Amino acid sequence: MTDTEPRRGRRPGRPDTRRVILDVARRRFVQDGYRAVTMRSIAAEADVDLALLSYYFGSKKGLFGAALALSVNPAEVLARLLADDNGLDTFPEQVLQQVLAAWEGPQSGAALVGMFKNAVGDDALGALIREALEGEIVDRLADLVGGRDARRHAAAFTTVMAGLITARYVLRLEPVGSMSRQDVIRLFAPQLRLALGMPPRLRRPTGSAAQL
């Protein structure tokens, strides 16, 4: 092969490669749905090595979040918490802490609100996000909960979170819209525990009751 002959094989990682991958991913996700799309099929269509997708985005969840221009992807936040393998005891509080931080971030919050509003007005995008939520959040959480009603509990948990997000960040419904983060956690953590079928956390007695 001489210097004048055209090169064959996958394109190298050029400055525009990431943009090409995201363009392909965004179109494929909307067109085919979250579950049907694979990292390998996106790499093939973008004409890049599969390893390059992992290098840029880490996982399918990461690619999905990047394709929707999300600097923080709720599915990845949940995946990290589930990977900690600390059980369910403090899981509702941890999820609330992480999700509230993401939606209140100066850049991530604006992107998440924009995605939410676009999903309401765009049936295709709404269906895509619903499918991603079911596959990456409801299904994985159901595996952690276990039992005959695991998926129902996981769906209830996700519904409570979606209602909170809608009220606080989209509708700005008071008093939830202006509550402190800690107040929101105190108010909604018991509801999330109930949704998961968990017993309420017992509060430590204070004052004279603690000495009985």
UniProtKB/TrEMBL annotation:
Keywords linked to the UniProt accession: DNA-binding
Coiled coil: none
Residues annotated as domain HTH tetR-type: 15-75
InterPro entries membership: Homeodomain-like_sf, HTH-type_TetR-like_transc_reg, HTH_TetR, Tet_transcr_reg_TetR-rel_C_sf, TetR_C_16
DNA-binding region per UniProt: 38-57
A matching Pfam family: TetR_C_16
Record protein name field: TetR family transcriptional regulator
Taxonomic source organism: Streptomyces pyxinicus
Origin organism lineage: Bacteria, Bacillati, Actinomycetota, Actinomycetes, Kitasatosporales
